[in-house]
Amino acid sequence: MTDPSPSDVALELERLRGVVETGFARLDGQLALVVQRGEQVEARLADHEQRLDALEKSRWPLPSILALVAVAGLILTLWQTANR
């Protein structure tokens, strides 16, 4: 086996440099896509949290509903007994 000439080494190093640059460019593109998807997920999560908070604020608590039903029942019972 003979020692490679300096021009052969330079040629192989240049080829290796091209392969490394191509690999880094591909990784950079994939990382940009992951970041973009992460931002989209964060935006959807924030939207869902906002909508859930609005739903929680607009719903009536169960004890309040039960109290209203009890009062309505009492009023209906008193009205029926008064009309007999």
Q: What would your notes on this structure say?
A:
The longest helix has 53 residues, at 6-58. Helix content is 88%, strand content 0%. The chain has 2 helices and no strands. It has helices spanning 6-58, 62-82. It starts with 5 loop residues before the first helix and ends with a helix. 0% of the residues are buried. With 84 residues, the protein is an all-alpha fold.
How much of the sequence lies in strands comes to under 5%
Contiguous uncertain segments of 5+ residues: none
Q: What is the count of helical runs?
A: 2
Q: What's the gyration radius in Å?
A: 36 Å
| Main beta-sheet strand count, sense and barrel state | none
The global form is rod-shaped
Number of strands: 0
Give the termini distance in whole angstroms.
119 Å
Give a quick set of tags describing it.
84 residues; mainly alpha; 2 helices; rod-shaped
Quick overview:
With 84 residues, the protein is mainly alpha-helical. 88% of the residues lie in helices and 0% in strands. The relative contact order is 0.04.
